[in-house]
Structure formats: C-alpha cells, structure tokens
C-alpha cells in the first residue's frame, strides 16, 4: 500500500506508475530482499561474463546489481511490460553498458531459444494468469545447462501479532485471499512448476521478511487494502476493521508488533532438448 492508502495497480502499472515505483522501492530496499537478490546470483550459477535475463525487472535495481557482478564481459537484459518503469530503470542505469532495459512481455519473450545463460523472474508470477506459461518461456530463452530462478511470496504465510488485536479478525485479515494478487499461494507452487518444466538440480531458498514497524508493515502487507476489501465483501464491519487496525497501530507504537511474510526462490537447471 502506498502513502495515500492505494495499492499499486499491477494489471496496468503505467496508469499508476508513481505508486508502483514507490512500492517497489520500499520492498527492494528491505535488507532481507536485498540479501535474497544477491543470493539469486548464486542460485543462477552466474559468474563474470554471464548473459542474464531479468524478466519483470521493475525499476531495474536487481538488474543493475547483476550488471556489476557479471562485469564488462557479461550482459544483463531487464524487461518489463511497463514503459514507465523501464524509463525509470534507464534513468537509474545512468550510462551503464552491461545492462540493457526494454519493454517486453514475459509471456511472449522476443528472444531466440537459448539466448541466455540464466533467467529469473522475481515477484512476478503472483500477478500472472498463466504462471506455468511464464516459466516455460524462461526455460525456452535459457540455454540447456543454464539456470532459471523464480521467486514469489506465499501470502498465506502472512503473520500479524499484536497483543490487543482480536485473534479471529487477525486470522481473517491475514488470509491469502485478501492479499489482492492473482496467485496468493504461488510461493508454495513454484517447486511443482519447476518440476513440470523438467528442471534439474533444483534448489529452494526461503526468505522471511520481518516487520516491527507499523507503517512499513502496513505498506508492504496491504493492511488498508485488505480491510477495505473485507468490508466490501461484508466479511468485516467498519468498526471491526477500525478496532483491529488501531490495535495493530498501538502495538507498533508500544514496540510490541511482530509481522512477517515468507517468500520462496526456486532455481533449477534447464535440461537438454528431448530428442526422443
């Protein structure tokens, strides 16, 4: 949730570009997320000189990190459907020669088979109507023996612990269905998607992000949006929503708040073509 209480519209980012950029920056700057991005480089078995695709690159921060790591002999391509985010990524690149940003669709990548040594999609599949098709495209554009990595949260792992908050309301609010994303349980499904695409040497890397600050937890975990959606669906009354949010806010002020969300990165090796 952004500062004015609205969740970015991921189905049409360019209509809400400032909100999307601010949200992405908030998440990307979290210590756990930065550590996870650096870990992705290892899971991709990338090294200086590697050719890497970052699909759904957003504002480009991870692609720029990978560009530094692959060095002048390597190349990183970042794509995103949002023209506004690609413009922001190019501005942040500031003349970097190892990273190229362009608009593109993960469902229909404009690259030849086997173009890249490694490909990744981070916090992208949760928003797609066909995650399986996206993983297949990543495999197609990655050479046999190369690596792909997909990462997403599992919104059912959301935890909010505030001493005075009604536990039944807390359980309802933190249910995955109110996360306002197409695939709230995609985190737990990534392993099966990787297996279905025939990936080998699969590694699974969990990342848990912890919040004790109310404002940060509220923004990343969409408290306002969840409560609004639940009221619209007659799951919560206005008084219940207000009381719950105030109890969570008070826990934050008293340094008694604990919140978390867990995401999973699944990485694997692209198999050789099936010649049978």
UniProtKB/TrEMBL annotation:
Signal peptide from the UniProt entry: none
Domain Methyltransferase: 48-156
Family matches, as SUPFAM superfamilies: S-adenosyl-L-methionine-dependent methyltransferases
Name of this protein: Methyltransferase domain-containing protein
CDD domains: AdoMet_MTases (cd02440)
Source species of the chain: Natronococcus jeotgali DSM 18795
One MF annotation (Gene Ontology) recorded for this entry: methyltransferase activity
